[in-house]
Every structure is written in C-alpha cells, then in structure tokens.
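Risk register update: the risk of archive-format incompatibility is retired. Evidence:
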Amino acid sequence: MISTLATMKIVDHAVRAGDKEICGYLMGFARDSVFYVLDAVELPIIGTDSRVEISGQMGQKADEYTMQYLDLMEKVGREHKYVGWYHSHPGFRCWLSKIDVGTQKMLQMVNKTFFALVVDPLRTLSTRKVELGCFMCLKGDKKGKSNFYESIPLYKAEVIITYINM
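Archived output:
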C-alpha cells in the first residue's frame, strides 16, 4: 500500500528531473506481510538519461543525508523506517536494469524485506496514469525466472538474461 503523499512526491521528483534518472527512499512499515509506504525521501542524486546509482561518493552523500533525515524524523516523533527505494526510468517503463538488480541485491543483504519501486514519469504524463513497478530479488527455479523474463521489455531482455545467467 502506498500513500497518496508518497506517490505524489515520487512522481513530482521524477517529472522535475525530466529525462534524467533520480532516486530516493521509501519510508513506512510492514505489518502482516503488507508494506505500508507513507512517505518518500528524495536523495540529492541526479543520474544520466539511462542510469542512477547509490554508490561511491554519491552513496556516501546519500548515507549521510538519510541518517540526518532519520535523526530529524525521530526528533519530531515519526518512527517510520526505510522500507525500500525508488528510482525513475524516464521513457523506459518499469523494470530493473543490471545496475538496479545489483543495487537491490546490495540493499536486500542489509534488509531482506527491502524493495525497489520504479516509476516512468514520461509514460505517467502521457497516459495520465501513474506508471509504477515494485520489485524484490528472489531466489527461484528456472520456472520462476521465466515469469521475470516476460516482464522485461524485449529490447532490454537480452542484457538482463545475460546478467542473470552469469
């Protein structure tokens, strides 16, 4: 479940960046196997037209920023935690790229229930319907992987299949 506030913040952040990818964190909680996303926190990172990463120097800035944000939230009595991250794919639809899968795996090593949300702001604007996808990295058999392949745009499937089979 995602609040209207969080959805609006994510879409606004992505639309303001135009054709550049952006990212941020999702705040909320989990109860009875349901995630409740109450807020979205923009990270001060703007990527290129085809990638954004939370690593290296930018990752350090993101870590510092997120720790400060959590401290401020605690001071005002909001005890929600980070439950996931979001980023945009302007014009590329909602799926996880090779870099996104690596980022997701890294984040899930710290928190097994952390998830990824992808928004396509250009498609959202053109269809007037919020275009979101939600993802986690799961271990599965070949049958499970075939469902994953089907959700990938054909022009990107070869790259992802190669990465998964590595």
